[in-house]
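Propose amino acids for all 345 sites.
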């Protein structure tokens, strides 16, 4: 029986259009309006940074954090939304310019760990056991500024401290090879899975594949997903698209390369992704040119195209695929897939 999928998105995926060269071009949408809007589009779950869920949490006591997060969980439940995951936002504040867990300043490293513990508390009170680590500034602009070996050890120590803090928390590492830093210490899924196996509890360290991040690493997103799937470690995805090696574009799913999008859906579908509770999340942004009245369109488009590609994966003539593969007629197989995607079969 073919499975069905459940979808998730973050509040940052409805945004004001600022980029490094220009300020905002759309008014901000209040958080509550965003939540209601994504539910109306068919999303059942949301991803929240720790301070999306509890603004200014660094100024609050653990008790205040607990009650704010619990209240948010209830108001989301009233809308029909659950929380898929939370993530510590260790890249925005000025204290994190040199990273958190790998900063050269030990007081910054200690603060990063404290902040992450608060994020774990937020996860618990929002009703999720999944925390994502996008290790945004855990890298360098200057090779000689940090010891890369020591940085990996520091990341491992930090992950072990998180696992020890909460016996139920699961950590999904979201690798990205660059941006905002020049070079990151955990740039690919292979790195994420490897450090997970070195941790104190490998069963609680997995990965999140973002399509664009794989492309920026020069890798195929479907194969990155496959690598994590084969280890039982694909705990979420950030589907989107990316037109080559540029800045992180967060285009709508399938917008740059429909065949690559199809191959991602195929690998998820064939592995039964979603049947163990995993969400299909999109990390997509509206173009800067988007008018306010169209600023949800990329969220509708991504979901619609994903579901259309699920139909394409399910209706692919697998017997013919198998016989073309057995005959090593890969030209014929190429044609079969392209005609199928074009609706010519
Ligand atoms: C950056 C990202 C991030 C993460 C998010 C959750 C802001 O390229 O993809 O989006 O997905 O922080 O970990
Ligand atoms: Mg992402």
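Proposal:
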């Amino acid at each position: 029986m073919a499975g069905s999928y459940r979808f998730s998105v973050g509040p940052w995926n409805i945004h004001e259009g600022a980029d490094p060269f220009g300020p905002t071009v759309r008014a901000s949408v209040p958080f509550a309006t965003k939540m209601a809007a994504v539910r109306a589009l068919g999303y059942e779950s949301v991803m929240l940074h720790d301070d999306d869920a509890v603004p200014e949490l660094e100024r609050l006591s653990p008790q205040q954090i607990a009650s704010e997060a619990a209240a948010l969980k209830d108001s989301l439940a009233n809308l029909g939304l659950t929380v898929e995951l939370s993530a510590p936002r260790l890249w925005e504040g000025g204290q994190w310019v040199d990273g958190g867990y790998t900063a050269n300043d030990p007081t910054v490293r200690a603060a990063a760990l404290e902040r992450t513990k608060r994020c774990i508390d937020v996860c618990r009170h929002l009703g999720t056991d999944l925390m994502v680590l996008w290790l945004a500034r855990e890298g360098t602009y200057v090779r000689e500024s940090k010891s890369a070996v020591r940085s990996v050890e520091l990341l491992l120590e930090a992950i072990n401290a998180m696992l020890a803090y909460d016996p139920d928390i699961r950590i999904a590492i979201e690798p990205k090879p660059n941006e905002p830093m020049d070079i990151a210490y955990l740039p690919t899924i292979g790195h994420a899975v490897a450090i997970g196996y070195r941790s104190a509890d490998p069963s609680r360290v997995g990965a999140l594949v973002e399509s664009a991040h794989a492309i920026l690493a020069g890798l195929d997103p479907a194969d990155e997903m496959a690598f994590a799937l084969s280890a039982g470690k694909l705990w979420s995805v950030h589907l989107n698209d990316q037109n080559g090696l540029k800045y992180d574009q967060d285009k709508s799913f399938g917008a740059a390369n429909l065949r690559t999008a199809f191959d991602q859906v195929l690998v998820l579908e064939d592995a039964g992704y979603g049947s163990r509770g995993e969400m299909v999340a999109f990390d997509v942004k509206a173009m800067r040119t988007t008018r306010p009245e169209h600023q949800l369109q990329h969220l509708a488009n991504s979901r619609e195209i994903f579901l259309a590609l699920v139909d394409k994966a399910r209706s692919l003539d697998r017997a013919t695929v198998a016989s073309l593969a057995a005959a090593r007629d890969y030209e014929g197989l190429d044609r079969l897939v392209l005609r199928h995607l074009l609706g010519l079969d």
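Residues 136 and 263 are 27 Å apart (CA to CA). The pocket of 3-O-methylfructose in linear form (ligand 1) is lined by residues 12, 87, 132, 134, 174, 176, 210, 238, 248, 283 (CB under 6 Å).
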